[in-house]
Amino acid sequence: MEADIMRASIGVCRDASVAWQMAAFSVHPSLVTFAIGSFDECGMSGPFAVLMYSLRVDEYVHDNGRQVITASGRMRSLTMVGDGILREDVEHDFLAVAADRCGDVAPRMDIHFVTPFWTPGLVQPVATPSIVRPGWTRFGGELVIAALNETSMRLGVIDA
Fold first, then answer.
1. Phi, psi (deg, nearest 5) at residue 4
2. What whole-number distance in Å separates Cα of residue 143 and Cα of residue 11?
3. What is the pLDDT of residues 80-95, one digit of tens each?
């Protein structure tokens, strides 16, 4: 494994929390990112796009025994809805959790946060509630599996 991604995570995940779209992420001691996007017929940002990146990482824990990486700190989030309309540009706290395969559980990454727009049940009723932090939202899911050259592989690495 490359030295720059040891004890870190990078990849693509998906589940209902990101409207079944592919979401790219990274979890590293110096930077945590998460991005979801779709395109319209002209190739412009579509009806739903989110870009999140850490402004600072206050805590980074690599738990090799549990095969989990957690990171927390402060990040900036930009949410676009409709035809490229910037709905929200805010700073907020976050908790990122990247878990490598553990038993029958597939590798996954989740980011937990809350913003004025992404508050479960209030402004955004489709926001997936976090089970880690009550009142917060969760984006994430299992790493995407791609069929490449007649073999399957996960699109990402969680070096936990």
1. -75, -10
2. 7
3. 887 678 899 999 999 9
